[in-house]
Amino acid sequence: MRAARGAAPHGRSPDRASTYISKFKTPAEILDDTKTNSASPIKEYLNWDDTLAAEEYRLQQIKNIVNHIEVRIVYSGGESKTFDRAFEYVSDSEGRQYIPIQTALSNEEYKRQVLQRAWATLQGWVNRYQEYKEFKPVVEAYKKVEESLFVSQ
Q1: What is the residue range of 22's domain?
Q2: What total number of domains does the chain contain?
Q3: CA distance readout (Å), 36 to 19, 40, 42, 51, 52
């Protein structure tokens, strides 16, 4: 078992962290041990300043809330479409920011960013689940789309 590339800070051993984590069944168990175990290979990756950790946790909660707001767009003529996300996260001259899905759909640069991130997410999903025979038709469809998108370029 190995930790994924990028899971541990540069120069650290992801294999050591993976071996340590595999001894536990839940994140709570890992945290309980890491609190008291000075030899824990993941201890240094956690924020032990309770004030800063609380702020980071609240930011993560807000991201989770924003990422789970749905939006329903009603077009002229009565047709409607529900999107699983009301906001997209994009970059522009003002930095990274959330924008309404309608803005992402109508702005070519934002739309390009969203599609690029969606493709990367799909690639990650395929990499994670391609060994499951139940997903073989999905993986094959992905490969056909990938071929048509990137061979024609």
Answers
A1: 1-46
A2: 2
A3: 18, 9, 12, 20, 20
